[in-house]
């Protein structure tokens, strides 16, 4: 028997890989913003300096947690992957890609079926490698445990502050107050006049519907700068103890550290009532009467 080798007639072209990077920071503060800009600069230099890569772009989500699906740039990147416009994704670590083990593996497997690899720099994992998925499963589980631990520590810290009477309020959605340099609630005099008017109108016999209608007719601005007033918002303002200078803390709590879902506290966890925690806009007698 004789074997004759038939040499290939077509040359295999070494096509450049279409490469992008995904970057994310979980908060929207200045320091994290600088971190994101540094990541973008780093990955652009890394990809463009490699002669085997074609630079597709940098996809970056800012101030969005990895435990939710609200990541527009991440979704846009996946859409391009489905359109075969990306071959490789480079990212810093598993925790930047997703902290949920199931989500991480689902994304990786979906991309793998499309022939697209993900390179996790910190963990030194290439998902197209035979060992990649085994390592990824183990490390993703560790990342998820870390996310749970961070969430529990954060919750513990917040509750310790509550026990000490330290009020944590989102003043941006709270008509009548601002915060000073130390984070303490201070009265916004312009907005406080609107709050006082609402209370006085109610005591004079006007219902929440009529109060909301009159505020809209006079085009008086709400906390968000719009002139739309909701009846439900008026009712909440009339029963909000913070306007008399007190605060009930932990009215809601987080039930799932991955989805960050919050629900009303109906006695499942402690609440804390802090008297005279900040300056009052409405005196206690008027508030009790309302």
Automatic annotation (TrEMBL):
Pfam entry (one): Resolvase
Which residues are in the Resolvase/invertase-type recombinase catalytic domain? 18-165
Q: What molecular functions are annotated in GO for this chain?
A: DNA binding; DNA strand exchange activity
InterPro entries membership: DNA_bind_recomb_sf, DNA_bind_recombinase_dom, Resolv_N, Resolvase-like_N_sf, SSR_resolvase
Start and end residues of each Recombinase domain:
174-290
**Which SUPFAM superfamilies does the UniProt entry name for this protein?**
Resolvase-like
Q: What is this protein called?
A: DNA invertase Pin-like site-specific DNA recombinase
């Amino acid at each position: 028997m004789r074997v004759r080798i038939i040499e290939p007639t077509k040359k295999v072209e070494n096509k450049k890989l279409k490469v992008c990077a995904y970057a994310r920071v979980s908060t929207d503060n200045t320091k994290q913003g600088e971190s994101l800009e540094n990541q973008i600069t780093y990955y652009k230099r890394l990809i463009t300096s490699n002669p085997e890569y074609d630079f597709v772009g940098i996809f970056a989500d800012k101030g969005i947690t990895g435990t939710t699906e609200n990541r527009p740039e991440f979704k846009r990147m996946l859409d391009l992957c489905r359109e075969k416009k990306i071959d490789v994704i480079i990212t810093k670590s598993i925790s930047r890609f997703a902290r949920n083990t199931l989500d991480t593996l689902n994304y990786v497997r979906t991309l793998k079926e499309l022939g697209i690899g993900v390179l996790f720099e910190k963990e030194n994992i290439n998902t197209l490698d035979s060992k990649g998925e085994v390592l990824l499963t183990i490390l993703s589980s560790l990342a998820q445990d870390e996310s749970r631990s961070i969430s529990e520590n954060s919750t513990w810290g917040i509750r310790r502050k509550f026990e000490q009477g330290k009020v944590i309020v989102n003043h941006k959605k709270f008509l009548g107050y601002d915060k000073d340099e130390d984070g303490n609630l201070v009265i916004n005099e312009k907005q406080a006049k609107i709050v006082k008017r609402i209370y006085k109108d109610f005591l004079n016999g006007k219902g929440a519907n009529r109060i909301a209608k009159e505020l809209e007719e006079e085009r008086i601005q709400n906390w968000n700068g719009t002139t739309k007033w909701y009846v439900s918002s008026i009712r909440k303002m009339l029963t909000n103890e913070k306007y008399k200078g007190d605060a009930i803390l932990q009215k809601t709590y987080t039930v799932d550290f991955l989805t960050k879902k919050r629900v009303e506290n109906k006695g499942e966890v402690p609440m804390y009532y802090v008297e005279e925690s900040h300056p009052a806009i409405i005196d206690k007698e008027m508030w009790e009467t309302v």
